[in-house]
Amino acid sequence: MFSSFSVLSARRRGAARLAAATLVSGLVAVGVLAGSGTAGAEETTQSQGGATATIGGLKTYGAAVIHEDSGDQQVSAGLFEMSVDGGGTLQTYCIDIRNPTQRDAKYQETAWSGTSLGANKDAGKIRWILQNSYPQVNDLATLAAKAGVHGGLTEQDAAAGTQVAIWRYSDGADVDAVDPQAEKLADYLDKRAVDMAEPQASLTLDPPAVSGHPGELLGPVTVHTNASGVAVTPPADAATSGVRIVGKDGKPLTSAVNGSQLFFDVPEKAADGSAEIAVQASTTVPVGRAFASESHSQTQILAGSSESTVSAPASASWAKKGAIPALSAAKNCAKGAVDITAANQGDEAFTFELMGTEHSIPAGQSRTVTIPLQEDQAYDFTIEGPGGLEKRFTGILDCRTQGTAGGDATQILSEPSPATVGGSADDTNLAATGGSNATPLIAGVAIALVVIGGAALVLVGKKEPTRE
Q: Which of 430, 404, 403, 426 has its CA nearest to residue 416?
């Protein structure tokens, strides 16, 4: 959704988000366990696999009007198009109406729990709308007849009506389509929607990290995919380390299917270390999968997919003795937190500290540590383990749809076409996120606050959700 907020209004909101993220990013950086430091830490995102894509912009859309206490504002409403890394095209709708879309932002297929859908009791109704409207139902005459739309639907009407119906559930927005046919469709979808289960990921590996002793089969790592098969890429240094990827029968694997179990076969004389693999496939991504960006670009939900490239990583660590941790992380938007999962397959307890609290994982056990964060809070956690193991988890907790900015001026546009505020130098579609003359001041204030509060954790105030 290319939001049609005024330049002033958008810059105010963008500046606040930028200042908050910059401030917290400087303070919520946690190094754990005395050791070699974090300079060489392996950085790990919270991606559990699937499609990675770049957003291209609105392709099929109409106009809608958001009704708020501060006044009405007209916005564009319809289908986005994304280009998948490795090949493929996705069509998506917005589920974050008040947040702007960053031009050419990178998106990752994400579980609902990692987005605002994780705490949205109506998330299943959004999937029903996607399954029962455009473009999944591309016979517009049939769709118009079901919705009671006299005079038929254009693609623009269908896209706008579908997006409006989604916003009513994703953002709790009081929004109507401008075109009467599109509004009729939106009302039909809104009233008929029923709960559906979250779709399965196109490709994930579970768990994404394992550990153990050399000479053992480390795993299993189970493949979950809707593809007919996946290709397995061995560790980059497999020729020198001797680490192989095998099945439970010990035979080497270069391909797998849904439900396959993969193991890291580590030579008995291997020095303490770690390895990572990737699996890749070509498939259609299931309708209803969420797509999130770490650049605060508005969250999307999948409406259609061509045959697309998907991938997923997994890692293993091993040691002859002591603690042997396997570490992974995932956003938990229902709790407003990041979950750090630590499994210890060693013969000693694995102890680490996060946010001032010490955690100990006994030998042979696995535990999940939930780290509460504020909305829009940037985080940077580094966990150090024995043998020089370092895992760094970075990101921004972007779990909620944006609330209204009370008192800010809004502008009602007469044209629904997408535009860019501030000319070609601005990388934001329609709504600027801090790209104004105030940016140096904002950065200066953020830096000053980081210095002043360097010894304390500064939490950004929570925004209230827009839908009960």
A: 430
* Cα separation, 159 vs 176, whole angstroms: 13
Angle in degrees, CA 216, 221, 222, rounded to 5: 140
pLDDT digits (tens, 9 = 90+) for 188-225: 999 999 999 999 999 999 999 999 999 999 999 999 99
Distances (CA, A) of 103 to 2, 51, 54, 231, 424: 10, 19, 9, 32, 11
pLDDT tens, residue by residue, 41-50: 555 545 679 9
CB atoms within 10 A of CB 226: 16
Question: Has this prediction a pTM greater than 0.90?
Answer: no
| Helix, strand, coil in percent for the chain, rounding step 5 | 20, 35, 45
Token look-up 């102890």 returns 351
Spatial CA neighbour of 38 closest among 353, 386, 350, 382:
382
What does the pLDDT look like over 152-185, one tens digit per residue?
Answer: 999 999 999 999 999 999 999 999 999 999 999 9
Phi, psi of 98 (to 5 degrees): -95, 5
CB atoms within 10 A of CB 67: 12
DSSP code for 145: H
Cα 424 to chain centroid distance, Å, stands at: 27
> Cα separation of 163 and 173, whole Å?
11
Evaluate the omega torsion of the peptide bond into residue 286 and state whether it is cis, within 30 degrees of 0.
no
Lookup: tokens for 345: 């397959």
Cα–Cα distance for residue pair 88/338, rounded to 1 Å: 30
DSSP letters along 302-370, please? EEEE-SEEEEEEEEEEE-SSS--EEEEEEEETTTTEEEEEEEE-SSS-EEEEETTEEEEE-TTEEEEEE
Tokens for 284?
A: 């259609």
Give every CB contact of residue 240 below 8 A, 6+ residues apart in sequence: none
CB 118 within 8 A of CB 332: yes
Q: What tokens does 306 get?
A: 């061509």
Question: What is the C-alpha separation between 175 and 77, in angstroms, rounded?
Answer: 10
Q: Is 146 exposed, middle or buried (0-12, 13-18, 19+ CB in 10 A)?
A: middle
Q: What are the tokens at 159?
A: 């896209």
Q: Tell me 112's DSSP state.
A: G
Q: Match 């939930």 to its residue by tokens.
A: 370
